[in-house]
Design goal:
By secondary structure, this protein is mostly beta strands. The protein has two domains: 145 residues, Immunoglobulin-like, CATH 2.60.40; 95 residues, Immunoglobulins (Immunoglobulin-like, Sandwich). It is built from one helix and 17 strands. The strands form four sheets. The protein has a five-stranded antiparallel β-sheet with strand order 3-2-5-8-7, with no helix packed on it. A five-stranded mixed β-sheet has the order 11-17-16-13-14, with no helix packed on it. It has a four-stranded mixed β-sheet with strand order 4-1-9-6, with no helix packed on it. The protein starts with a helix and ends in a 12-residue tail after the last strand.
Length: 298
């Protein structure tokens, strides 16, 4: 009697252990998937339709989202085992999300972010992913923008949120019709007459009777005159200083007694004269004493 009871207890224990292993196995095959919609530049009231294809959840049906909305959480079997584990459904185990075309929008991007929990009992302790969660590795996401779809490889206890960003198309505006141009009378513009500049440099006499040298510049359209004696600048005039003439009167101390002295005048003209600056030169000598004595005849 006791042996029969013992065998019954052992069998019951094995059954309970088997049920526990079965329950743990069922939990070990879980992962979570969501979709987040981003509407960029469009009407916030517009909706976007999606079609989920989950091998482990054939009852999943199409759904719609507005910009800023998040879909329900789909619990699916994982299809990417962790290293050293064999806890996910064997391929083929499709985890695909596709978006239907929406008039007036183009699909700009699909970005999938995830959180990974490490509780072997199937608890999602890491919580739902956000816009700041890590992106899934490129080898775990196959994105097809042309067909507006993404295929996922998901680990056990991983929670994935895929952000679908749609961009509103810019409206095509009709080309502006140019306004008629009224004919304008043709204006005849007379050519501008340019008055050219001119200048001459001269001394007051063939020779100076004192130690003062006098030179003068005359001409038209003159704007400035700079005088130099023996290479040394001695005076600059911005306007005529003697009866409409540009006159230099300077002492020649320290120079040779009788000369000749080299006098130079750089003449600049008004801009409207379109005349280039000119440099004029003359020689001025001091008279020798014999030249000042009167000559007598008789």
């Amino acid at each position: 009697m006791r042996s029969r009871s013992s065998r019954f207890l052992v069998a019951a224990t094995l059954v309970c252990a088997g049920l526990g292993l079965f329950a743990q196995s069922a939990l070990a095959w879980q992962a979570r998937v969501q979709v987040v919609k981003i509407n960029q530049g469009g009407n916030p009231a517009d909706t976007f339709a999606f079609h989920p294809t989950f091998s482990s959840l054939p009852t999943a049906t199409d759904f719609t989202l507005k910009g800023g909305e998040t879909s329900q959480t789909y619990e699916v079997t994982c299809n990417l085992a962790r290293p050293g584990h064999n806890e996910c459904a064997a391929p083929p185990n499709t985890l695909r999300i596709a978006e239907h075309p929406t008039p007036g929008y183009t699909l700009g991007a699909i970005a999938c972010r995830s959180t990974q929990s490490y509780d072997d009992n199937g608890a999602f302790t890491a919580g739902a992913p956000t816009a700041n969660s890590p992106l899934k590795p490129a080898d775990e996401v196959t994105t097809d923008l042309a067909n507006a779809s993404v295929d996922l490889k998901i680990h056990f206890n991983e929670w994935v949120a895929c952000y679908f960003t749609n961009v509103a198309a810019l409206p095509v505006l009709p080309a502006p019709v140019p306004a008629p141009v009224a004919s304008q009378p043709q204006l005849v513009v007379s050519p501008v007459r340019v008055r050219a500049g001119s200048a001459k440099l001269a001394s007051s006499s063939p020779c100076a009777t004192s130690n003062v040298i006098v030179a003068r510049v005359t001409g038209k359209r003159i704007a400035r005159v700079t005088f130099s004696v023996e290479g040394r600048r001695v005076k600059t005039l911005e306007r005529p200083n003697r009866g409409g003439k540009w006159v230099l009167s300077t002492r020649v101390r320290g120079l040779p007694k009788h000369g000749p002295y080299r006098v130079k005048a750089r003449v600049e003209f008004a801009a409207s004269s379109q005349t280039k600056p000119k440099t004029l030169r003359i020689l001025v000598s001091r008279c020798r004493s014999g030249a000042l004595r009167p000559k007598f005849t008789g």
